[in-house]
Amino acid sequence: MRPLTEDESKAVFTKLANYIGKNLIHLIDRQDEPYCFRLQKDRVYYVSESSMRLGISVARPNLVSLGTCFGKFSKSGKFKLHVTALDYLAQYAKYKVWIKPNGEMPFLYGNHVVKAHLGRITEDTPEHQGVVVFSMKDIPLGFGVTARSTVDTRKLDPTAIIVFHQADVGEYLRDEDTLF
Amino acid sequence: MQRNSNQSVTVEKETPLEVDPGYLTVTDLNPVDEESYNENLEAHLQSLARDGVQALYASLFTLPTRPSPDGPLAQLPPPKTQLPRAKPLPKPKPQTKWEAFAAAKGIQHKVRDRREWDEEKQDWVNRWGRNGKNKQIEEQWITEVPLNADADYDPRKVARDARKERVAKNEKKHAQNVTRAAAAANPRDARKTDIEKTLATTRISTASMGKFDKKLDGEKKIRGVKRKFDPTEKSVSDEAKASVALLSRLESDAKKTRREPQAEESVLNTRKAVRFASKGRGGLALGREAAGGRSSRGGRGRGGKR
């Protein structure tokens, strides 16, 4: 377990900023308890200071997980967000997409969101913007990237992809052993 | 012959004494009189010294004076004698690659002025640095866009990237010149590191990448560059501060290429306002309408289908 280097922090922050924008500051500078980012076996964990200090005394091979796993670094140094970060993303998301009940299952099986399943979308969402996907009952289901801006979606046919799938809560079952 | 002139004020020698009042120095260039030297050394030296001092005093009294509380002071002229320098001459600077090339080709060095003439402003402007001419395209309020440019073509970003690239290239060249100069200054060390590098490369250039090769006696393990990380138990508040600083740096980088304020910063949502004002047809249509509102093309409904 170690703190992130500057390049790693940059990679993590740019990814997170794509979803929550300036709210990222609320993750770094928290009022309730100091939190920090820690890297352990290529995975980035968002941990409170107290549990981080407890974790220091655990040897590296024995430490399986701590805090909230935000994602992992690929071998080529790119950062990939995991669905485990969804709680924080949903809390601070700038742009949101709500999908209809008949679209929930297809999305939870890892498919993209098509226009027919689109319930609501934050207005003025630009193209290629990170969005958090909610069910109509405001339950966060996952996140993705918009394929078109809100204005452009009007003209599309119902089968056109609106949001590219990136992660969904179905991964808790599908990728149970590698997720955390 | 010195005996007779012992009490004289004027010193007469075969070769006249060289007096440099600036250094208060007298040089006697006459050959040593061997006879008097051998007869009585002390007396000979004393007479030589007296003559010298006499000549020095005589020259001092001819100098212009300046009154002072302690009596008149002679004003010494600047020294005439050329003294050798105390330190060795500086070594010539190692040539850069360009300088070597220019010398070989006989290219003359032209000193470029730091400022250049701006026709539009009718004034001298900095070539680089603050308000530099090299940032003109990035800073001017309107820029021409090529006809076949993409929709997201940003001339400001293109110009800035090109400038940054030039700077990076120059820095790279500078670093290469520095290492080349260091290698030239100490060829033995340079050769040594070169051989070590080559050896390290050959050792991992086998089919097993050096894993199953026969080890030679006294062969050391190849060590790469050791990475260094911050300690895990560092103060979290310091870490948060560093993260906030990094964030603001990321933001400022993004802002430098994009001039218009971020949507979340201003109270007015420009895109939404334009959409509302143009009834969803975009800013271009709105502008056309405003420009052609009084012209013959006129009308809102007809204007769209031309």
UniProtKB/TrEMBL annotation, chain A:
Residues 95-170 form the PUA domain. One of its GO terms (molecular function) is RNA binding. InterPro entries: NIP7_N (IPR040598), Nip7_N_euk (IPR055359), PUA (IPR002478), PUA-like_sf (IPR015947), PUA_sf (IPR036974), Ribosomal_synth_fac_NIP7 (IPR016686), UPF0113_PUA (IPR005155). Keywords: Nucleus, Ribosome biogenesis, RNA-binding. CDD domains: Nip7_N_euk, PUA_Nip7-like. It is found in: Nucleus, Nucleolus. Its main location: nucleus. One of its GO terms (cellular component) is nucleolus. One of its GO terms (biological process) is assembly of large subunit precursor of preribosome. Belongs to the NIP7 family. Interacts with pre-ribosome complex. PANTHER family: CYCLIN-DEPENDENT KINASES REGULATORY SUBUNIT/60S RIBOSOME SUBUNIT BIOGENESIS PROTEIN NIP7. Required for proper 27S pre-rRNA processing and 60S ribosome subunit assembly. This is 60S ribosome subunit biogenesis protein NIP7. It comes from Tricholomella constricta.
UniProtKB/TrEMBL annotation, chain B:
Residues 251-262 have a biased composition (Basic and acidic residues). It holds the Pfam family RRS1. Residues 1-24, 64-95, 166-191, 251-306 are annotated as: Disordered. The keyword Nucleus applies. Keywords: Nucleus, Ribosome biogenesis. One of its GO terms (biological process) is ribosome biogenesis. One of its GO terms (cellular component) is nucleus. It comes from the Eukaryota. Belongs to the RRS1 family. Involved in ribosomal large subunit assembly. This is Ribosome biogenesis regulatory protein. It comes from Tricholomella constricta.
